[in-house]
Structure formats: structure tokens, C-alpha cells
Amino acid sequence: MSSGSSETILFRVHLRWPKKRDRLTINLEPVLVIRGCFRVFNNMLETKFISGIIPPENHSGPAWWFAFKESKLLVHQESSGVRLPLIADFSELGLAPLSKHYLGNLDNQPCYAIELGGETVPPSGMIFEGLRQLYGRLEEDLFWISTRAVQIVDWDRTHRFCGRCGAPLVTRSTERAKECPQCGLLHFPRLAPAIIVLVEKGNEVLLARSRHFMPGMYSVLAGFVEPGESLEEAVVREIREEVGIDVQDIKYFGSQPWPFPHSLMIGFTANFAGGEIIIDDTEIEDAGWFSVESLPRIPGKISIARKLIDWFITKQATTQRLF
């Protein structure tokens, strides 16, 4: 198997055994190309969005406005679906923002994040909707910019004072940061790295059910990275803590921003190395090995968890076709 950033090529191996002292001959016949299995699952990389801090001075055309009341996004509700405001100035909606943040530009149109007060009533024909509910309804580019916007709004709202001395913070104009004018401490947007792992054992995958999941839902295991810990060490520790088994052959799969509220999910695959499943019942309600034919209810397509499981399903189907 040969893999790159965008495709995987599976080969059928032909062996010609030596008769006397001839060398063993190995021929590789490419039989199937699977595209997109090992790509980085950050959809922002595929857009024409360019991140920025300093807004354009002389832009007079329309801009995209990502306005949030708490964690819900303001959108137009139409018979054909939902859409974001694309207007020259946010004041056209008749709403008073608490804060405004330049995000960058998408296809040369500026993008702004807006914080609205908790009592804000949406204009006629508009609603506030959660990001999970908007996935698949907004254009893909705009959805992922929305996940960036909500994190910046949340960071700005929850970081008004210095955590060291309590003084009011001042926003820096040239970088996404706040500075304490009294003690000089810098505050950057909060980001919590978390590993998420698909563990294989032959033609089975390890899935577990959290007590917080929807009824019948199972997924791959995940957990936050601890200070001083490498990503690979976090994989080994989390799997051992939650289900009691050991893993090996840990390989990077891809990553995805997860704005609920501010995580970066870093995906891996691994192989079962030994042990029996013993669940940590403070976090896990059930766990087990599942074949493709016996999969339970799994997460939706928005998440890297689903992309990991879909990768496993594709791999198993390919293996059956070859052998």
C-alpha cells in the first residue's frame, strides 16, 4: 500500500520463486486507488479563505457577517434553506453588536465575527441556529469559517481580565491576542488539543458508548492531551484508561477543528496489541469490537470520528474485493 496526502494505492503482489540461484522477483500490480482517505480533514485548507487580523481600509462592497448570540449563529431562513448575511455594513440589520472581529477574507470578501447581546431579537426572516444544526445546510466554506468565528467570539467574551493580576485586558491590533497593561501577560485564544483514535483488531473496530451520547450511539475513543505529554503517549494512555487494552502501530490520520467549545481533534489509527476490554464506568457505558456488518449507530458526517469509521469501512470493503 502506498499512501500520500490525497490518495492510497493498493497493490496485488506477484512473487516469482527462484529455481536455482536466481533472485526472488516481486512485481507490484496496482489494483485500486482510494482517494481522500489520508488527507488532513480540515476543510478550511480547501477553501479560498485567507485568515487576517487587520481589516481592509477601503473595502466598500459586501462582507460576510458571522453574528452570534451566545453560541448560535444569525442566519436568513428561506424556503430553499438558510444563508448568511452578505451586506456592506452590519448596521443594515438594525442590530447593535457588543464586539466585532475581522477574520480574513473569502474570495476577496471580508469576513467578520460579531457578538450580540443575550436579549437580541432576530430581524424578520432571520433566526439564531446552533452550528451542529447548520452543518450540511450552510455552504461548506462558510460553515467552517463559522466554527472559527464562534471560537474567537467566545474567547473575547471570556477573556476580559488578566488571570494573573485582574487588570482589564487590551486587544492587540496586529495579532490575535490580548495584553495586560499592568503586568504584560499575553492572552491568546484558547485551544484544547484532543486525540481521537480508531483501534483495529483484524476485521473489527473498537467502539465505545459514553454516558453522554444519544441513545444507541457508539464512537471511537477520544480524550484531551495532558501537559507534558506527546500525542502518541496520549493515545496509549487514553485507550488504556478507558477500556484497559494496549495498542501499537499508531499512525496519524488527520485533524479537525471542533468548536464545542474550542478543541482541535487530532486523529490516529492504531492496532490492538493485547489485553481484555475493562471499561472505566465513570466515562464509558459500554465498549466492544464490531465488524462492518454489525456496526451500531455511529456519529454524523460532520465529525472526524465518522471519517475514521468511514475509512475503516472502505478499507474492509477493499480487502474483501482483493481477497
Order of helices and strands: EEEEEEEEEEEHHEEEEEEHEEEH
- At the first level of CATH, the class of the largest domain is Alpha Beta
What percent strand? Answer: 35-45%
The biggest sheet amounts to: 8 strands, mixed
Shape: globular
Number of strands: 20
State the helicity in percent bands. Answer: 10-25%
- Structurally, the number of domains stands at 3
Count helical runs.
Answer: 4
**What number is the mean pLDDT?**
88
CATH architecture of the largest domain: Alpha-Beta Complex
Structural class computed from helices and strand pairing? alpha+beta
Radius of gyration: 24 Å
CATH homologous superfamily name of the largest domain? Nucleoside Triphosphate Pyrophosphohydrolase
CATH topology of the largest domain: Nucleoside Triphosphate Pyrophosphohydrolase
End-to-end Cα distance, whole Å, is 15 Å
Task: Summarize the structure in words.
This protein is α+β, with helices and mostly antiparallel strands. It has three domains: 2-35, no CATH class; 44-158, Nucleoside Triphosphate Pyrophosphohydrolase (Alpha-Beta Complex), CATH 3.90.79; 191-322, Alpha-Beta Complex (Nucleoside Triphosphate Pyrophosphohydrolase), CATH 3.90.79. 17% of the residues lie in helices and 39% in strands. It has four helices and 20 strands. The strands form four sheets. Strands 4, 5, 6, 7, 8, 9, 10 and 11 form an eight-stranded mixed beta sheet that branches. Strand 18 (246-258) and strand 19 (263-274) form a beta hairpin. Residues 1-18 and 20-45 have low confidence and may be disordered.
